[in-house]
Amino acid sequence: MIRETCLSPDCFVYPLFVTSGKGVKKEISSMPGCYQESVDVIVGSAKEVYSLGIPAILLFGIPETKDELGTSAYDEKGVVQDAIRAIKDAVPELYVITDVCMCEYTSHGHCGFIENGDVDNDKTLALLSLEAVSHARAGADMVAPSDMMDGRVAAIRSALGREGFSSIPIMSYAAKYASAFYGPFREAAESTPQFGDRRTYQMDPANKREALKEVALDIEEGADIIMVKPALAYLDVISLVKSSFALPLAAYNVSGEYSMIKAAGQMGWIDEKRAMMEMLLSIKRAGADIIITYFAKDAARVLNS
Ligand code: PBG
């Protein structure tokens, strides 16, 4: 009765990785229990997620082919577009959010258009807009730009409006840091940059006030939900953003945070279940309304039992 913070499956979003082919279910070695799945297989996973009381998924695509411009990101017959249609068909109540970024689709693994050896911010906006519109057209309920280009929320907002999707909300990865904790994800999404790193567009982990600036810009541009990412090493940022803005706040409990607990649990060095629940609770306590987590299914099972 007097407990200040409580977790519920309602606040979780579960990330899913869709790949090309048929009958594919390939475990991600650095993320035990997480898989790359083809469209036919991912439908079953979506059903399982919904049956556990988790209201939403976040879809990532691993396309069959990659090129300089990441054209498969906005292909109407792309893996993510196919998966959205199949999932909405099989489990219409499950809320489908799509990650909007170029890094999974470009041959160089960067989050945008490359010019003179670096990402060109403004030229990337057009590609992200195409991608967001193509997700909406396939039936996505919400789009989540994760690239960290300046001005992308405004660009996506107006592209969605122009194409008749003005009611599709945008969850922006507003304060996204250049983090080592994304390591396992890059294996999962096959999106490791082939040269350089993402520090010209993702944030410096040393900066907190800058997070307020990034969030304010995204809200001004039309974001409906804002996100802080990663979560565990940035609880102070979550808390600050929560107390500074009135929008719903999501926190991304990223791949490295998942893998650390899984690995230590498998070694018998830590009580995996308790550590998982304590970590999720701390993210909620810091102020997150929504937690995007690879632990969503495991935690929902604990909460439901
Ligand atoms: C795409 C993207 C990344 C993550 C989510 N969207 C990777 C990155 O920025 O390199 C990371 C998620 C995770 O580590 O769980 N830009």
What descriptive keywords fit this protein?
305 residues, alpha/beta, TIM Barrel, two-stranded antiparallel sheet, 10 helices, 39% helix, 18% strand, binds ligand PBG
Description:
This protein is of the alpha/beta class. The chain has one domain: Aldolase class I (TIM Barrel), CATH 3.20.20.70. 39% of the residues lie in helices and 18% in strands. Helix 2 packs parallel to helix 3, helix 7 runs parallel beside helix 9 and helix 8 packs antiparallel against helix 9. Bound molecules: ligand PBG. Ligand PBG binds next to helix 5. The site of ligand PBG has 12 residues, from helix 5.
Which compounds are bound in this model? ligand PBG
- Principal-axes shape call: globular
Radius of gyration: 18 Å
Which CATH class applies here?
Answer: Alpha Beta
Low-confidence stretches: none
Instruction: Tell me the name of the CATH homologous superfamily.
Output: Aldolase class I
